[in-house]
Amino acid sequence: MDRTLRAANDPRPADSGPQARSQGTARVALVLALSALGIWILHGFLPALVWAVILAIALGPLYARAERRWPPGGHNILLPALATLLVALVFLAPLVVLGVQAAREAHDVLDFVRSAETNGIPAPDVLRHLPFGAAQATAWWTETLSHPEAGTELLHRLDNASVIGLSRNLGREVVRRSVLFGFTLVALFFLFRDGRAVASQVLIACNRLFGPRGERVARQMVASVHGTVDGLVLVGLGEGVILGIVYYFAGVPHPVLLGALTAVAAMIPFGAPLIFGIAALILLAAGSVVPAIVVVAAGFVVTFVADHFVRPVLIGGTTRLPFLWVLLGILGGVETFGLLGLFLGPAVMAALVLLWREFTETSAGDRPAETA
């Protein structure tokens, strides 16, 4: 009876003491072990999950607008399925176009190979239009590559074993990428369907683990993904459209294909000059010197305006991040995570800069005393 009264009057909680502390330590260890095991099990699919999260964040405003216009039914399946199908078509349609174009070009490549094996590789017209050394360059090409033996020797260097090995590796990589893309679409469907619940749970978890600061960091990273999508993807597509028009009027072969490649390359800093440089070289090989100069000049003007004026406003304005840190985040992210780094790098930089700003904010009591 006395023990019961003492236990009832004891102000300490019932779960305090060494046993409670050991149980808390065991729970933390169990959570860490299970988390590590789950990451190890899913490590092959983590890129697909991250891509699904990025796509869900980037397309979240558009999906929310569609949801307000067409409210989902009880099962909430039709609208997420349609949105996921549209995303799949956006990615698959260009690949189909590239495949059809490659199949068309295969015939020309085969004709070139047969001609090179029979007659050698003729000297391009650009050698005759060089400002200096035209005669020497043309003579070297004629003696080295313009006879049948040179073409046969060049083609025989590609032995069957290396070609078969390259084909197997390429096929294995295509299958792997296709599986990851399919898993990304499945995860994206569930994120579209349950996006609000998932976002609410993430914010609650951040708030419980790190307090209000954790929720602010999560919101800042989401805003960074939005800004990066606008600054990289949309600006890159704009560069591809403008330079594709320049390719068309300059007479570059396959301007639509090169414009699409320019749009993809422009999403990576300093990637667009590689593509419009190739377009200029194609024009030079055909003897069109002035159009090649126009392509290079237009390419540098478009990329300079996009990289120094448009992107800093779109990315830095959304993330409140200096463009230097945006650029370092993009380059470091691409080097570390590949294409995922285009979005993960700026998001991590934005979170770090936010934490630094909050840590270095000076209150009235923290300000140094002014000296007389």
UniProtKB/TrEMBL annotation:
The entry's keywords: Membrane, Transmembrane, Transmembrane helix
Membrane topology field: Multi-pass membrane protein
TM segment ranges: 28-57, 77-100, 231-249, 256-276, 282-306, 337-356
Broad class of the protein's primary localization: membrane
Subcellular location: Membrane
GO cellular component, one term: membrane
Highest taxon above the source species: Bacteria
UniProt region (Disordered), positions on chain: 1-21
InterPro entries (alphabetical): AI-2E-like
Similarity comment: Belongs to the autoinducer-2 exporter (AI-2E) (TC 2.A.86) family.
Protein name: AI-2E family transporter
Species assigned in the record: Methylobacterium planeticum
